[in-house]
């Protein structure tokens, strides 16, 4: 019986990207670089400056929580895979090989794995980064399987880190674990490919066969419109649709599948990072701010008296069922007084795979990441972005 590592390695080695795959890779490169550049002034930049390239760029690219997401696996694919590729001189094919492995492995791990508290971006990310770096380095199929197995010890991360620097740092650790595994496999290290099977049996609820069909990244990638957890994108977008109709808010009633807000662990946030994982604050910023951007997720913004007041007026009803962040729909009713209510319902927020960003929306995101970002990334290639990140985020210490 073929091991999962062997099957994934063979799929990656055989990958011939289609034009649509290459377009996705280019958008992912630009999106990942843009959100990293947006974090240039973040305190984590100095903290992460001690890390190797892949870990440093990955952690910085994730700290603002503005990077893309694969819905089916609940993983932030590009912020793990792209830095691994950029750090090892790879190209779009290396990215797509790693991204495809991450999507498939993360989907195999399943919603139960994520709902149990694992940070699937890290657990699926380390083996995927090993494939991305390994393809970039020109490893053989057997070496790719070995690299996947060598990345298993680094495949860890938990959701308790959400709202702290630990979240983005553990994503960086996953990217670097993959690069390290590929380097060791190239140097001649041996490992049992069956290690991945054994690990999956320990951390996943089911052990279904890998689905190696379809495009490089099945389901595509969701692009965020707001710099916060993906579980907040839909509630924010829904309330923004009726924002102009709101007045004298007495209470905000939210009805949503419990699975869709699983990562939102901070009901009463007191910091900007906690605010990125708070359903009540998602609604507060949607009401108070014309655009819930970077300034909406600072400590000062979260602790605004008017924001804290709105947070206290949010009532949430969790409906059962569902197995993902876009399961079902969110329903919001804003109560003005006993006889006046405004309601809205939304299934797919802007940027979702079924509602991809328009060229104008994507350009708007790039502009939000910095006035110079569109120009810096106007002719982005994997080589040019690698040079850019080394210049903007040099390794220190």
Structure write-up:
The chain has helices at residues 4-14, 19-38, 44-48, 53-62, 77-87, 92-115, 120-123, 125-137, 141-151, 165-186, 194-203, 233-240, 272-275, 279-288, 299-302, 305-312, 359-368, 373-376, 382-392; strands at residues 251-257, 314-319, 330-337, 340-346. A four-stranded mixed β-sheet has the order 2-1-3-4. α1 crosses α9 (141-151). The longest helix has 24 residues, at 92-115. The mean pLDDT is 96. With 397 residues, the chain is α+β, with helices and mostly antiparallel strands. It folds into two domains: 4-225 and 354-392, Orthogonal Bundle (2-methylcitrate dehydratase PrpD), CATH 1.10.4100.10; 230-346, 2-methylcitrate dehydratase PrpD (60s Ribosomal Protein L30, Chain: A), CATH 3.30.1330.
């Amino acid at each position: 019986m073929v091991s999962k590592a062997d099957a994934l390695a063979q799929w990656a080695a055989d990958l011939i990207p289609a034009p649509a795959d290459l377009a996705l890779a280019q958008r992912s490169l630009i999106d990942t670089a843009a959100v990293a550049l947006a974090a240039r002034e973040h305190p984590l930049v100095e903290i992460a400056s001690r890390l190797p390239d892949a870990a440093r760029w990955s952690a910085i690219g994730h700290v603002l929580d503005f990077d893309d997401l694969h819905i089916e696996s609940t993983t932030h694919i590009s912020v793990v895979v792209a830095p691994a590729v950029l750090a090892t001189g790879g190209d779009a094919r290396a990215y797509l090989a790693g991204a495809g492995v991450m999507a498939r492995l993360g989907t195999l791990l399943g919603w139960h794995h994520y709902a149990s508290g694992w940070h699937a971006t890290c657990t699926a990310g380390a083996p995927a980064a090993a494939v991305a770096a390994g393809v970039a380095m020109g490893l053989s199929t057997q070496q790719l399987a070995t690299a996947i197995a060598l990345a298993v010890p680094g495949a860890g991360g938990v959701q308790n880190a959400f709202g702290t620097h630990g979240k983005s740092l553990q994503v960086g650790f996953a990217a670097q674990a993959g690069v390290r595994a590929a380097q060791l496999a190239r140097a001649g290290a041996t490992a049992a490919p069956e290690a991945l099977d054994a690990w999956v049996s320990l951390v996943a609820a089911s052990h279904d066969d890998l689905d190696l069909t379809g495009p490089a990244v099945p389901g595509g990638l969701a692009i965020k419109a707001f710099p916060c957890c993906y579980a907040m994108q839909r509630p924010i977008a829904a309330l923004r649709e009726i924002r102009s109709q709101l007045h004298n808010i007495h209470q905000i009633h939210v009805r949503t599948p419990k699975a869709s807000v699983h990562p939102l662990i901070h009901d009463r946030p007191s910091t900007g990072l906690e605010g990125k994982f708070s359903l009540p604050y998602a609604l507060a910023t949607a009401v108070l701010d014309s655009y819930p951007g970077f300034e909406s997720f600072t400590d000062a913004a979260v602790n605004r008296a008017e924001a804290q007041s709105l947070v206290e007026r949010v009532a949430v009803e969790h409906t059962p069922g569902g197995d993902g962040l876009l399961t079902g729909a969110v329903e919001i009713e804003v109560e003005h007084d006993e006889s006046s209510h405004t309601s809205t319902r939304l299934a797919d927020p802007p940027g979702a795979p079924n509602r991809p960003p328009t060229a104008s929306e994507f350009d708007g995101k790039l502009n939000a990441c910095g006035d110079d970002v569109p120009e810096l990334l106007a002719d982005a290639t994997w080589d040019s972005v690698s040079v850019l990140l080394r210049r903007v985020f040099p390794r220190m210490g």
